[in-house]
Amino acid sequence: MIFTPSPMLLKLLYTRGSLHNTPEGVAFSIKNRLDTVRITRVEAVVLDGKRIGVEEIALDLGGGDVRPATTFNADATGFTLPVGQSATFHLHTDPLKEGLHTVQVQFSADPFGDLTVEVEDSIANLPTQGHKIPRSDADDYADEAIRARQQFAEEFSGQQFQHLKHYSFDAHDLQGNCEHFTGVAQIPVGLAGPLHVNGEHAQGDFLIPLATTEGTLVASYNRGIQLLNLCGGVKCTVIGDAMQRAPVFVFDDARGARDFGRWVEEEIERIRPEAESTSRVAKLQYIDTYLAGKFAYLRFNFSTGDAAGQNMVGRATFAACSWILENYKGAPIRHFYLESNFATDKKASQINVMRTRGKRVVAEAVIKRDILQQRMRVTPEQLAYHGQVSNVGAFISGANNNGAHSANGITAMFIATGQDVANVSESSAGVLYSEITPEGDLYISMTIPSLIVATHGGGTGLATQNEFLRMLGCVGRGTVNKFAEIVAGVVLAGELSLGAAISSSDWVSSHEQYGRNR
Length: 518
Description:
Elements: H1 7-10, E1 20-22, E2 25-31, E3 37-47, E4 50-53, E5 57-60, E6 66-68, H2 69-74, E7 79-81, E8 86-91, E9 99-110, E10 113-123, H3 143-157, E11 189-199, E12 203-211, H4 217-230, E13 234-245, E14 248-250, H5 254-266, H6 268-276, E15 283-292, E16 295-303, H7 310-327, E17 335-337, H8 350-355, E18 358-367, H9 369-376, H10 380-397, H11 406-417, H12 424-427, E19 431-436, E20 442-451, H13 463-471, H14 480-503, H15 507-514
Parallel strand pairs: 11-13
Antiparallel strand pairs: 1-2, 2-8, 3-4, 3-7, 3-9, 5-6, 5-8, 9-10, 11-12, 13-16, 13-18, 14-16, 14-17, 15-16, 18-20, 19-20
Helix pairs in contact: 4-14, 6-7, 11-14
């Protein structure tokens, strides 16, 4: 299934601010933000109404690959432009004056056909940057390029660096993960556990890697894990799975936005294949519509396999919105933005607590009265009452979590296993609940409504990060829910440990004993 890019979306191909004069004439860049395509023909470029023919155009595809546009037109196969790659157009023409100019690019691409990108850009004299970080256009991950940056950092700061220069992997493996690579930050990793997990995907005992510089953190989680194990382990269940992108469509008035929302609901079965045309993995589950004034916010909800999926769903939603822009015949759409801030990417939000972002997972356990008293020096009644008091504190403070510190365990596991650590902002939300059972034991559960994790893509394939995922048995297809269950179990262990420490007044003394550099 091939989506049709609308003129509004085609404008996004152009790289704003790329227009500049060169010794030979004028240059600008376009970047493929749609799908992998094959450029089959370059027709012309029109600058301020002046047509520049293909004979006066050359394309720079990066890596020193510069070719006259006529060579592409002469070869019926054209050239492939992957998603994310830029092409710089070099035009043999008179230089442009400072100020605003119109740029129109006419070309053909398989499978889209004839396309026209038309935008405005400006020529401006910008001050020269005083200091510039060294980089290599040929190979920015080569040893020479890395040493140049290390030397630059030492000269700029007036310091000598010993440790950040030493690492055990090929820097080329970092392409797509880190730009201007200069060195590493070595973070201590401690082991907790093994944790016994009774999940639908994670079953058995798991060593838990925790990357942290906070004293007592590993010891505290290990204490909670031991308590869970003595009571039969932790039961974990993934109860929801959705990753979002939330575009906004702007109309002249509220009625236009309302009618558009109804149309989207009616056309979901035609929108779905357009969204799914960009990926073998992303599957559109449903679209939520939220209206405010003349704005229609669409919240696209996808499943994304073993990937966290933010980029994946961005491409899929881009394709769906392109089809929408082409096919909606109601009130005119005045503006469109692929992300409206309604997906709340990298931000805690109430909508994620209510509607799920990433994995919605629950960890629960029944803690025996005698074991709790022997190991933690508290009773079930003490912990349950402490939880009630804490609920009031969380409520009046507006916190997104009524527990103690789920972000500690999540962050430590994220760093160790190559997750996007900024996702802790959403993943740290939690709903802690406890009650006394008829037998006098403590039932406790932690619901994590927006746990964003991956076992494929991002940093999960890097050297040490992949090794820690292998330690957990979370490498390979179909392992992301297993990983989510393990993380949830660790979070519950941490809640038990810190909650008991505060209730029994062991919290300060523990930090005094383990957490201070002496």
